[in-house]
Every structure is written in C-alpha cells, then in structure tokens.
Design a protein that fits this description.
The complex is a heterodimer of chains A (114) and B (112).
Chain A lengths: L4 E3 L2 E4 L5 E6 L6 E8 L3 E9 L2 E5 L6 E5 L5 E5 L8 E8 L9 E2 L3 E5 L1
Parallel strand pairs in A: 2-11
Antiparallel strand pairs in A: 1-3, 3-8, 4-5, 4-9, 5-6, 7-8, 9-10, 9-11
Chain B lengths: L3 E2 L4 E5 L4 E7 L4 E9 L6 E7 L4 E4 L2 E6 L4 E6 L8 E9 L6 E2 L3 E6 L1
Parallel strand pairs in B: 2-11
Antiparallel strand pairs in B: 1-3, 3-8, 4-5, 4-9, 6-7, 7-8, 9-10, 9-11
Classes of the chains: A mainly beta (114), B mainly beta (112).
Chain lengths: 114, 112
C-alpha cells in the first residue's frame, strides 16, 4: 500500500514569491492535514481538510492556504514568501479524521527561502 | 502556550536497557495520544497510541502509559536497540478533531 506522497521534496524560492506544495494521501484516506516543522518550534499544525472542506485551522497568517480535491489530494499554497517560511512542510492523512485514528505522514517538502 | 511538553531534549541509553521518554500536557480536553519516531530527512512514523479510556497500551517492545490525573504519558522501549536512535515526538488531539498538537521532541541515542 503506497504511503503519503509529497512533491516536490526540495524547493528553493526567493522572498516575495509564492509556492504550491502537493500531497497525495494513502488510498482511501479522506482527511489530509498539513504541518510546518522548524528547529525552534517543532511541528505546528497548519490546517486540515476533509471531503474538500477545511475543518480545522492553526494559527498561521492568511498567506498560508490550502485546498483538497475530490480525489482527496491536497495542495498547500504560500504567497509572498518570507525568510521565516523556510521549513519542512509535512502532510499527513487518515481515514476519517476522527481523533482515535493515527495520522500517517509523508516525507515532507523542504522549502528554503533565499 | 505549549500544550504538549517534552522537557528532555535528549536521552542516551545503552543497548539492551530500557528507554523511557516522557511527555506532559495541559489541555484536559485531549483524549487521544500518540508517539511518533522521526529519522532525519523522513516524515514522522507512527509508533503507538493510547486513548484516554486506557492507562496502558503495549505493542511489542513499545509500551505507552497514560496518567490522566497527572496529565502525563510515557513511552517505554524495552529492550532498546541502536535502530531506535531517532527523535521521538508525542502528540495529542481532542475529540473529533484531526488537529495534532506535538511536543518539541526528544532525541534518543542508543549506544552499543
């Protein structure tokens, strides 16, 4: 069974640009969550999508947005990139998004802002 | 406000001995707790979880203990192996949400 797939694995951008990251969940999983990992802050929750609807949102500015398609694949977009957006962005999927089911993570997209 | 805390940034244990990783939380609404292991350049890998209706869950060498009154959970690894060397994150979520709140991680090193 294929795991969570994130593309691209690495990305270099400059300040002010925008970026789109992609996540394909495990087949059959309908909930997709996004996290940002930085050395100082650990893993921080960005948002969660279920059946193409955003169900939960973390404390990130509006420059961070996402969407989910009918096949459960999800994209995350960051506009007007800042140096502080350099991080590992992780996507996780679960079957239904209920709290008693573990999320399974992809290997992440490493975003570097110059 | 750090709702999930892992106060030990690192832990070093000899192979064959027990590793005990600790985690504290502040939000009494959390009802599901998980441990993840993370190697460099990889995403976190789910290890074991526990629901708030239990106080212990065991899976092979891994056992998680939950003390609700103390808002504390721990992960025991017995016996520890060099391949267990990784960063371990505890995470918590509240009922009917997929929002995981993570601790800052504990780096475990198992030496021969």
């Amino acid at each position: 069974k294929a795991g969570v797939t994130q593309t691209p694995r690495y990305l270099i951008k400059t300040r002010g640009q925008q970026v789109t990251l992609s996540c394909s969940p495990i087949s059959g999983h309908r909930s997709v969550s996004w996290y940002q990992q930085t050395p100082g802050q650990g893993l921080q929750f960005l948002f969660e999508y279920f059946s193409e609807t955003q169900r939960n949102k973390g404390n990130f500015p509006g420059r961070f947005s996402g969407r989910q398609f009918s096949n459960s694949r999800s994209e995350m977009n960051v506009s007007t990139l800042e140096l502080g957006d350099s991080a590992l962005y992780l996507c996780a999927s679960s079957f239904s998004g209920l709290s008693n089911q573990p999320q399974h993570f992809g290997d992440g997209t490493r975003l570097s802002i110059l | 406000d750090q709702q999930v805390k892992q106060n030990s940034p690192s832990l070093s244990v000899q192979e064959g001995r027990i590793s005990i990783l600790n985690c504290d939380y502040t939000n009494s609404m959390f009802d599901y707790f998980l441990w993840y292991k993370k190697y460099p350049a990889e995403g976190p890998t789910f290890l074991i979880s526990i629901s708030s209706i239990k106080d212990k869950n065991e899976d092979g060498r891994f056992t998680v203990f939950l003390n609700k009154s103390a808002k504390h959970l721990s992960l025991h690894i017995v016996p520890s192996q060099p391949g267990d060397s990784a960063v371990y994150f505890c995470a918590a979520s509240a009922l009917d949400t997929d929002k995981l709140i993570f601790g800052t991680g504990t780096r475990l090193q198992v030496f021969p």
